[in-house]
Amino acid sequence: MSVVNYGSKRIVVGAHYGLRDWLCQRVTAALMALFTLVLLARLIFSKGPIGYHQWAGIFHSQWMKSLTFAIIVALAWHAWVGVRDILMDYIHPVGLRLVLQVGALVWLVGCAGWGIQVLWRL
């Protein structure tokens, strides 16, 4: 009995995290969409001109700061999964991909840290 091998064995490389990354992207996107609706509702039902004091008033309550903190983390995580998958799919030299991933991660952590710092200073 002879075994016939059609083609070579498929090697899966790149963004192969599957369901976990897919679910992460969907959950974080849903959270950001919900936050956008809450923020729009707060803006629509607020009185007076929209200026610094109006924005500071929206984010003054503890529940809004906590929700915004969670959304900043979700946004950073959402962006990281997307950027990582793109880099894994399209940047083949491992050293270059590692440098770009570290750069993207540092940038995202810096932006999230800055956003949280601005939020808690209000």
From TrEMBL:
Localization annotation: Cell inner membrane
UniProt main location, coarse: membrane
Cofactor(s) essential for the protein: heme
Residues the record lists as binding heme: 78
Example of a GO cellular component annotation carried by this entry: plasma membrane
Residues annotated as transmembrane: 27-45, 66-83, 98-120
GO molecular function: electron transfer activity; heme binding; metal ion binding; oxidoreductase activity
Pathway this chain belongs to: Carbohydrate metabolism; tricarboxylic acid cycle
Protein origin, superkingdom: Bacteria
Membrane topology: Multi-pass membrane protein
Alphabetical UniProt keywords: Cell inner membrane, Cell membrane, Electron transport, Heme, Iron, Membrane, Metal-binding, Oxidoreductase, Transmembrane, Transmembrane helix, Transport, Tricarboxylic acid cycle
Positions of a ubiquinone binding: 90
GO biological process: cytochrome complex assembly; tricarboxylic acid cycle
Cofactor binding remark: The heme is bound between the two transmembrane subunits.
The protein's role, per its UniProt record: Membrane-anchoring subunit of succinate dehydrogenase (SDH).
NCBIfam families assigned: succ_dehyd_anc
Name the UniProt record assigns to this protein: Succinate dehydrogenase hydrophobic membrane anchor subunit
Organism of derivation: Verminephrobacter eiseniae (strain EF01-2)
